[in-house]
Amino acid sequence: MLATFTEELDKIAPRFDIRGDQVTVLRSPSEFYETLKDKIRKAEKQIFLSTLYIGKTEHELISVLGEALRAKPELKLSVLTDALRGTRETPSACSASLLAPLIEEFGPERVEIRMYHTPNLTGLRKKYVPKRINEGWGLQHMKLYGMDDEIIMSGTATTSSPPPK
Fold it and tell me: Could you say which architecture CATH assigns to the domain 29-153?
């Protein structure tokens, strides 16, 4: 029965066979954040971050990304955040504002910023629904962080601050 189930899953999504000794469990948000910064600093070819948003207070993470890009001219960065959460400016800078200087400094050939916008929020709905409520129509909420051939799958955001208000 289980074999049949996994065969069906194999038809719709890839499977990655790994051993238990290839997995490290990070036990706290602070351990996750320190590990993320360490892996970014050690990346040689590529970094990708897929996250709901980059926290408004995460200047340190942006600095670490900038340092890594400056140190390794071949390194590329790709970021995917949610467009609704990632462009909320009030009361301080949003993900888009925090990430924009990386594109300015390193160019679009090395830094790619993408923002997912739900197709369920358009027209009059988008025009009149308040910003905090509009997220109810859908968000990009993955928390995947990749550096070269390693990946961190997380349940926490890249921030130590609470979600934006």
Answer: 2-Layer Sandwich (3.30)
